[in-house]
Amino acid sequence: MTRLYVQLSSTDGEKVDKRMATPEYVMHRAVEAMRPFNLRWKTIEWFGNYVVGQRAARHFADDENRVFIAGDAGHCHSALAAQGANTSMHDSFNLAWKINLVVRGLANRRILRTYEDERRKIAKDLISFDAKHCEAFAQGDDALARNFDENIRFISGVGAEYSPGPLTLETQVVSGLRPGALMVPARVVRYIDANPVDIQIDIPLLGFLQTVCEKVDSGLKELNGLAQQSYQKRPRGWAKKDELLQPQRYTSVSHFLTFALVTRSSRSLFEVVDLPDVLQKSRWTLYLDELDNPTCTEKWMGDVKSSQAGIAIVRPDGYAGGMGCWTVEQGEQAAQWTQDYFQICRCI
């Protein structure tokens, strides 16, 4: 099945009476646009027309943060750049993990305020982009190609970024990754089975915060204990895909967050038993950074020296929450920084 969008104008830039928007008229326009290629129809499953407009709701939640809107209820725009479903799903991801923490007593209700702050900002960015994209569409292929080139980061989703806030800490790290943005794709080798994987999607989004670290360990005993009690009382739901995902691999240390190690050390230089206990239990999230050029470390943390270690905190919606680099001697500072971030989640 193929879906076609046809601009309703008899000549470029001329509007057409909507009564002319019949299937026959649209098919004729599509055939003309596709020349010298042939285009034929067997059946038409659905036909409709709409006037393109850009609107965003003033609020995405009520004052008490008990009623929320997401998706098309919060932002309307054209369908030209395939942003509707993607943006709507990210609205839901953003809200779902925060509600999960609140319901389980792992975060203060005030964390729900950040839903509107973060997602309405994206909606406004989308509306601004879409207005320019529609204008370029009407101007022709050259203008549309330029618009794609200028906005490819936003169209791909990587450029849909949150402003600095309590859950997206500003950083001094200079790299391709920044807090408030989706994780930059990177390929690494999973230590336990030597499989090459895309690390940004290898750890499933199970509704808890994830920490991707490169050497530093930290303790979050209170939150981990509360999470353990919560998931014992109210277990995570089961889905058919869990047979493949094996979620227990990622909750061996904590139901609150997953620990992961990305190292540039050679496989021959260490065994799992040589690592701290928390990483021994996280053996499915131990990765060797030996595939990409630039490496995962370089993409995410920039120029990390051999005497340094970096931490990237990844939120359950796939966005970077914070990142930083420390020397080995600054390990306690790194651990405190990590604890402070999660304390903000609880008290925000």
Automatic annotation (TrEMBL):
<dbReference type="Pfam" id="PF07976">
    <property type="entry name" value="Phe_hydrox_dim"/>
</dbReference>
<keyword id="KW-0560">Oxidoreductase</keyword>
<dbReference type="InterPro" id="IPR038220">
    <property type="entry name" value="PHOX_C_sf"/>
</dbReference>
<feature type="domain" description="FAD-binding">
    <location>
        <begin position="3"/>
        <end position="129"/>
    </location>
</feature>
<feature type="domain" description="Phenol hydroxylase-like C-terminal dimerisation">
    <location>
        <begin position="162"/>
        <end position="323"/>
    </location>
</feature>
<dbReference type="Pfam" id="PF01494">
    <property type="entry name" value="FAD_binding_3"/>
</dbReference>
<keyword id="KW-0274">FAD</keyword>
<dbReference type="InterPro" id="IPR050641">
    <property type="entry name" value="RIFMO-like"/>
</dbReference>
<comment type="similarity">
    <text>Belongs to the PheA/TfdB FAD monooxygenase family.</text>
</comment>
<dbReference type="InterPro" id="IPR036249">
    <property type="entry name" value="Thioredoxin-like_sf"/>
</dbReference>
<protein>
    <recommendedName>
        <fullName>FAD-binding domain-containing protein</fullName>
    </recommendedName>
</protein>
<dbReference type="InterPro" id="IPR012941">
    <property type="entry name" value="Phe_hydrox_C_dim_dom"/>
</dbReference>
<dbReference type="InterPro" id="IPR002938">
    <property type="entry name" value="FAD-bd"/>
</dbReference>
<dbReference type="GO" id="GO:0071949">
    <property type="term" value="F:FAD binding"/>
</dbReference>
<dbReference type="GO" id="GO:0016709">
    <property type="term" value="F:oxidoreductase activity, acting on paired donors, with incorporation or reduction of molecular oxygen, NAD(P)H as one donor, and incorporation of one atom of oxygen"/>
</dbReference>
<dbReference type="InterPro" id="IPR036188">
    <property type="entry name" value="FAD/NAD-bd_sf"/>
</dbReference>
<keyword id="KW-0285">Flavoprotein</keyword>
